[in-house]
Amino acid sequence: MAFDPLLADIRFGCGRSPVIAPPSGVEEMLTRLTGPDAAAAQFPVPGYDMLSAKQAEFARQRREIKPVKDKARRDKMQAAYREMYMREIKELRREHRLWLWNQMMRRAHTEDGLRERLVAFWADHFAASGKNAVFNLSVAPSHEDTIRPHLTGRFADLVKAVMTQPLMLHFLDQTTSRGPNSQMAQKKKGGGLNENLARELMELHTLGVDGPYTQADVRELAELLAGLSIGADFSFLFRPALAEPGAETVLGRSYGGPGEARLEDVLQVLDDLATHPVTARHIARKLAVHFVADTPDPALVDHVAARFEETGGQLDAVYGALLEHPAAWDPAPGNVKRPLDFIGSALRLFAVPPDSRAGRQPGIQGDLLRAPLMLMGQPWDEPPGPEGWPEEDEAWVSPQRLAARVRWAWTAPSVLMEDLPDPRALLTLAVGDRVDEALDFAVKAAADRTEGVALVLCSPAFQRM
Known about the structure:
Elements: H1 5-10, H2 26-33, H3 38-42, H4 48-65, H5 71-109, H6 113-125, H7 139-146, H8 155-163, H9 166-171, H10 183-187, H11 196-205, H12 215-225, E1 228-230, E2 236-238, E3 248-250, E4 253-255, H13 263-274, H14 277-291, H15 298-311, H16 315-324, H17 339-350, H18 357-360, H19 362-375, H20 399-416, H21 423-431, H22 437-444, H23 449-458, H24 460-463
Antiparallel strand pairs: 1-2, 3-4
Helix pairs in contact: 2-16, 4-5, 4-7, 5-17, 5-19, 8-13, 11-12, 14-15, 15-16, 20-23, 21-23, 22-23
């Protein structure tokens, strides 16, 4: 089995487009991937620094209120602070709706569909969500800072970026962790060692659930990670006073030693876990499952894992191994599209203009994107837990979730487009040689364009990668 431009768009990209040609081969896919991030520049989403600056201002105003003795003046200042806080959060939420639109426009108009798919893959691999008003809005900005810049670099550097990401530390309650013999534990009772980050780092992010680690490794790693924290402005901060003093042993290797805890020792253990041979296989299988099939060809997994080991986890080389293997291009329909992929590929199929009516009106965006994604089972930026979204096809094809897809296919295109395309031409563009006689007949016999377009979008050929 050889490279197929149809599969390049559908399986490894964001879907077919009437205005953007598919890549001509694997080499072009990798060249685009390692080139400039044009879609992110065209459809911007702010980085985490914007939210950190907001939080710094909130913290500054709270500090000004705290020492005020006069009750009347303090009450007035607190009322002004609450008004300012709610106003800023309301504005951030308004902008947050635009970020979803821009992310979908990236999928609709990028010439580098593999990049957008990989960003979503790694965002899911390192799944995290917020637990307060500010962090609830920080998921997309955090991905801009941690995932997109490290997409084709070393996996170890991606791990380091995510593990020092305030969102992840907040999500896994790392800010409450302190070594049992740390300086902070000696000064103040309460709190204790939190193993969440250490466990998920090993079980989900690197070695996998069946990795070669013990509970003792988890605890020692948690003691080593205890200094990872965030400051008052919600930016990353390493606090040696929270870390367990002395050396910790993880997978037989000692990290740290006498004296104050060091961030360098944390970064070293992250590097070692990220380049471990067992990690190579865990990541290889996850990539194969996500992009190719729930039960991938073992030879494909072996090939990708070997490239990971050979290169020390150089991700562009790992993607190259995935794309060069014949099993990746098996013409049999692959995984069911997740809701984000389904809606994104439909927007791309229609080449929805960024300045369309939906793009100009946040309320319509909510009706066409946010609410349907929730009904289909994948609310935007709200993963169900640190394990991320399920890969199994069965998770996405329940009666209720399929009904939500059908409703979207019947109603959304007419809102997104002033003039619907000819369903017969749309079918050929959307699924290529995957058209079967029954589907072809149904689309041609449709009563009108609304029905014909819905049949294309609801077809198994379009619903699968």
